Amino acid sequence: MIEQQTSASTATEMPRDVQSAMLRGAAQRCPACGKGELYRAFLKVRDTCPSCGEALHHHRADDAPPYFTMLVTGHVVVGALMTVESTYAPPIWVHAVLWGPAVVILSLLLLPRIKGALIGMQWALRMHGFGGKADEIDVAPEARAGRA
After folding, report:
1. Which of 76, 88, 97, 117 has the greatest number of CB atoms lying within 10 Å of its CB?
2. Which of 60, 55, 63 minimizes the C-alpha distance to 122?
3. What are phi and psi of 144, to 5 degrees?
4. 49 and 30 Cβ atoms separated by less than 8 Å
5. Distances from the Cα of 34 to the Cαs of 24, 26, 29, 47, 57, in angstroms?
6. Per the structure, how many domains does the chain have?
7. Range of the structural domain that residue 104 is part of
8. Which tens digit of pLDDT belongs to each residue from 27-46?
């Protein structure tokens, strides 16, 4: 389980439950209240929750949702493909008919749910502006030396 780190600035704030926030996000609902819709269109996150007004524009899901979607889809489809091949040994056209659409459908079903879960995790851990302050950018020491 992911543990929330506390610092002097977040010590006075109430901790947020990571698991429930991720489950709400996976259900494509606001991680704060669980009532408002997370998306205004397919994978387009609302700026604020229509139910509770929580700011959602801070999220930085980036490449993680497609990565995890491909990871899960690949394991499910390859496992099923190998099982079907070893059990029934169908002709190659059967594999093409089964697994092509399976990959597309599974990817389209999983991607918004995985992205929602990651947004919920970011909200619960107060990452990327969800904690009320902007991200701090670490500059490499050699880059700082060049500025002086």
Report:
1. 117
2. 60
3. -65, -35
4. yes
5. 5, 10, 5, 16, 16
6. 1
7. 18-133
8. 999 999 999 999 999 999 99
